[in-house]
Amino acid sequence: MRIDIELPERFDFATELPVLIGHINAGRHLANESLVALLNEARVRFLASRDIREGGVDGGVLVNANLMVDYRAEVRHGERLCIELAVVDRHRAGFDLVYRVGASGGDGEESREAARARTSHILIDAESRRARSLSPALSARLEARPSVT
């Protein structure tokens, strides 16, 4: 059964990352764990663009509670990924991010959709390790503002 990750109408952030030889598996394409690492890097860049640090947010830390990935096309060494992100489904203690991963070989090659992903993030108290509410200030920083890095 194939999962269906719905894309939002618009993405609030995009960043480009290279596919390095260390990202490639024995099948000569992007390894599963490498895509997850690249999604993590894109998320950190997104949060930094909104002045949010995962390890120090309102006296708490952001933790990843869920990850879904829908692979759409193979990605090879030397290609560039454009990872777009949008905040969706905010809730009391966290939010979800949706990612669209495009890949291209460069030199004017048209990008193709390589993957979609969705992650859920929860803010937990640094000491008690229990979920805590997002502050209005943190919620405001998550608001959509177009950005590309």
CATH class: Alpha Beta
Number of strands: 6
How are the strands of the largest sheet arranged? 2-5-4-3-1-6
Q: Give unreliable regions as ranges.
A: none
Strand content: 35-45%
Looking at how many chains there are and whether they match, the oligomeric state comes to single chain
Structural commentary:
The chain has a single domain, classed as Thiol Ester Dehydrase, Chain A (Roll), CATH 3.10.129.10. 17% of the residues lie in helices and 38% in strands. The protein has helices at 32-49, 136-142; strands at residues 13-18, 60-71, 80-91, 94-104, 112-125, 147-148. The radius of gyration is 16 Å and the shape is elongated.
Short description:
With 149 residues, the protein is of the alpha+beta class. 17% of the residues lie in helices and 38% in strands. It has a single domain (13-148), classed as Hotdog Thioesterase (Thiol Ester Dehydrase, Chain A, Roll).
Write the layout of secondary structure elements.
Blueprint: E1 13-18, H1 32-49, E2 60-71, E3 80-91, E4 94-104, E5 112-125, H2 136-142, E6 147-148
Comma- or semicolon-separated keywords:
six-stranded mixed sheet; 149 residues; Thiol Ester Dehydrase, Chain A; elongated; 2 helices; alpha+beta
